[in-house]
């Protein structure tokens, strides 16, 4: 199948100058900077390839969460309450700053040995309930209690409930 019928529109989008034919299934499109793009057998495959090459990754990755650290469970001298966890959110140092995070969702993401739903990564969701003390620590409740090995681990505090993707 010849790709020449839709190449002019691709040329305009990518700023390409010339078209060279390598063989019947694949053609090479070269832009003004000398970068060549390989055109595959069908339009759908090629548009997907072109989008990846044009879009690329410009600048820094945008992070949609604030990092936090799990300090431990809420506790007294002799009792501990594993249904409530203490979290230190990065950049939060006072009780007043915690107010903005009240009700926000957080995710503890960990790696498991056995694959589930096509991924080794799993997630326990929780919610910031209230401040704990005067130093910016928050109390949080999770869907299931955090495991003891999570102490000291990273946590993601979301500004709103953004779906978790396994591409970490």
Structural class: mainly beta
Strand content: 35-45%
Shape: extended
Order the strands across the largest sheet as they lie in space. Answer: 4-5-8-7-6-9
Order of helices and strands: HEEEHEEHEEEE
Summarize model confidence as the mean pLDDT: 79
Walkthrough of the structure:
This protein is mainly beta. 15% of the residues lie in helices and 43% in strands. The protein has helices spanning 7-14, 43-55, 95-98; strands spanning 16-21, 27-31, 36-39, 65-75, 80-89, 105-116, 119-132, 137-142, 154-158. It is extended, with a radius of gyration of 25 Å.
Give the SSE layout.
Layout lengths: L6 H8 L1 E6 L5 E5 L4 E4 L3 H13 L9 E11 L4 E10 L5 H4 L6 E12 L2 E14 L4 E6 L11 E5 L10
Antiparallel strand pairs: 1-2, 2-3, 4-5, 4-9, 5-8, 6-7, 6-9, 7-8
Family: Belongs to the eukaryotic ribosomal protein eL33 family.
Protein name: 60S ribosomal protein L35a
InterPro entries: Ribosomal_eL33, Ribosomal_eL33_CS, Ribosomal_eL33_sf, Transl_B-barrel_sf
Which structural traits does this protein have?
six-stranded antiparallel β-barrel; three-stranded antiparallel β-sheet; 3 helices
What's the quick description here?
Keywords: Ribonucleoprotein, Ribosomal protein. With 168 residues, the protein is mainly beta. The protein contains 3 helices and 9 strands.
């Amino acid at each position: 199948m010849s790709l020449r019928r839709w190449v002019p529109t691709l040329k305009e989008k990518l700023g390409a100058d010339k078209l060279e034919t390598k063989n019947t299934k694949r053609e090479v499109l070269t832009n003004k900077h000398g970068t060549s793009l390989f055109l595959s057998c069908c339009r759908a495959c090629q548009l997907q390839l072109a989008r990846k090459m044009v879009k690329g990754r410009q600048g820094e990755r945008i992070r949609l969460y604030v990092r936090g650290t799990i300090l431990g469970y809420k506790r007294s001298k002799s009792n501990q309450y594993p249904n409530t966890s203490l979290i230190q959110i990065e950049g939060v140092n006072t009780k007043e700053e915690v107010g903005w995070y009240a009700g926000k969702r957080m995710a503890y993401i960990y790696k498991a040995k056995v694959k589930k739903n096509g991924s080794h990564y799993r997630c326990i969701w929780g919610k910031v309930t209230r401040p704990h003390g005067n130093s910016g620590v928050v109390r949080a409740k999770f869907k299931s209690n955090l495991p003891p090995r999570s102490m000291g681990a990273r946590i993601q505090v979301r500004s709103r409930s953004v779906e978790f993707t396994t591409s970490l």
